């Protein structure tokens, strides 16, 4: 099942905003390993739909954050 964020669209025609998120991570939902795919898909979604936006992310696990393949 795709994350709810899969339906998100960047607002307006100016791709110069911010995406601020606190995605699930191991301390809240259990093991971090199953979340790697979620983070990778979130990174894909942001590159596709929010190109030019800056990203701020709350998360305690650099290994999960690396799955985004985006600068934080």
What does this structure look like?
- By secondary structure, the chain is of the alpha+beta class.
- It contains three helices and two strands, in the order βααβα.
- The protein has a two-stranded parallel sheet with strand order 1-2.
- The protein is elongated.
- The geometry reads as elongated
Low-confidence stretches at least 5 residues in length (pLDDT < 50)? none
Strands of the widest sheet, in order across it, are 1-2
Structural class designation: alpha+beta
* Radius of gyration using CA atoms only: 12 Å
What is the tally of beta strands? 2
Helix content: 25-40%
Number of helices: 3
Q: In whole angstroms, how far apart are the ends? A: 26 Å
Give the DSSP E fraction (strand runs of 2 or more residues).
5-15%
Order of H and E elements: EHHEH
Main beta-sheet strand count, sense and barrel state? 2 strands, parallel
What is the mean pLDDT? 79
What are the key terms here?
single chain, 72 residues, alpha+beta, two-stranded parallel ribbon, 3 helices
Summed up, what is this model?
Helix content is 32%, strand content 11%.
Secondary structure layout plus pairing:
Blueprint: E1 18-21, H1 26-29, H2 36-49, E2 54-57, H3 62-66
Parallel strand pairs: 1-2
């Amino acid at each position: 099942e795709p994350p709810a964020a899969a339906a998100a669209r960047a607002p307006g025609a100016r791709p110069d905003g911010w995406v601020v998120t606190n995605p699930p991570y191991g301390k809240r939902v259990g093991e971090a390993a199953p979340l790697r795919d979620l983070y990778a898909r979130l990174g894909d979604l942001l590159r596709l739909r929010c190109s030019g936006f800056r990203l701020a992310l709350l998360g305690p696990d650099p290994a999960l954050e690396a799955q985004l393949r985006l600068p934080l």
